[in-house]
Amino acid sequence: MKLVNLLQYFVTTGGYRLVDIATISEIHAPDLSRIVNGKRACGRGNLLKLLKAFTPEQQSTLVQAWLLDQIPAEYSHLVNVEKCVNGSKKNRIPNPGTVEGAVEVLKNAAETNSALTKVILNMALMQTGATT
């Protein structure tokens, strides 16, 4: 997931407000708004400031998304980002820019969201011509 999409997700579903993130991260609100809306790239300095506003798990996901954003699109299929916890690989971060990555993102989300699971299953059934 790209950093912009992740930030938008945190703002729309995580109960975060841009003004609160800006205050905690010490990024000027207009600059943060430009980053969240994809009108300005998030550089390393702003990423480090931004991390202050989130939990450790969210920080990890934000860093991973930022790293993926640094890879030119035509080479993104060559790179897998893996999360390490205490030196051991925890899980690979899927690239949602590929079909396989997008399916993996949906699968991971569906494991904790029964409504999404139902939508995905219904879509699969529609593609096969089966009915519920």
Categorize the overall geometry.
globular
Low-confidence stretches: none
Report the span from N to C terminus: 32 Å
The number of domains is 2
Number of helices: 7
Reading the helices and strands in chain order gives: HHHHHEEHH
Key attributes of the depicted protein:
single chain, 132 residues, 7 helices, mainly alpha, 434 Repressor (Amino-terminal Domain), two-stranded antiparallel sheet
Quick gist of this model?
The chain has 132 residues and is mainly alpha-helical. It has helices at residues 3-13, 18-25, 29-36, 44-50, 56-69, 99-110, 114-128; strands spanning 81-85, 88-93.
Set out the fold topology.
Layout: H1 3-13, H2 18-25, H3 29-36, H4 44-50, H5 56-69, E1 81-85, E2 88-93, H6 99-110, H7 114-128
Antiparallel strand pairs: 1-2
Give a description of the structure.
- With about 130 residues, this protein is mainly α.
- It folds into 2 domains: about 5-95, 434 Repressor (Amino-terminal Domain); about 95-130, no CATH class.
- It is about 55% helix and about 10% strand.
- It is built from 7 helices and 2 strands, in the order H-H-H-H-H-E-E-H-H.
- A two-stranded antiparallel sheet has the order 1-2.
- The radius of gyration is 17 Å and the shape is globular.
- It starts with a helix and ends with a helix.
- The mean pLDDT is about 80.
